Amino acid sequence: MSDADLRAEIEALRREIASMRAERKTKVDPEEDVAESAADSLMDQMRTLAQEISAFAEDTEKGVANHPLTSVLGALVLGIVIGRLFHR
Q1: pTM for this one?
Q2: Where are the beta strands (DSSP E) in the chain?
Q3: 7-54: pLDDT as tens digits
Q4: Distance of CA 11 to CAs 14, 28, 32, 81, Å?
Q5: Over the range 31-55, which residues count as b (16 or more CB within 10 Å of their CB) and which as e?
Q6: How close are the terminal C-alpha atoms of the chain, in Å?
Q7: Do 41 and 33 meet the contact criterion of CB atoms below 8 Å apart?
């Protein structure tokens, strides 16, 4: 093979690779889109859950601060019930 033939072959391979890359960019992989969509949805749900847990914790703190005796008695009764359930 001559030097010119090798260069022509290399140039043809480069064009083929470039066309394959362009084709790959234009194709949409439906599984990839579904996976990204599912991941985004899961992240949104996790953010919402974290916000709800934060709000619940703040409400609980306010409730305990406003009614400390009731909270302590409720925790005591709950502890006794759980202790009896697991003792069996």
Answers
A1: 0.47
A2: none
A3: 888 888 888 888 887 777 666 566 666 777 888 888 889 999 999 999
A4: 5, 28, 32, 80
A5: eeeeeeeeeeeeeeeeeeeeeeeee
A6: 88
A7: no
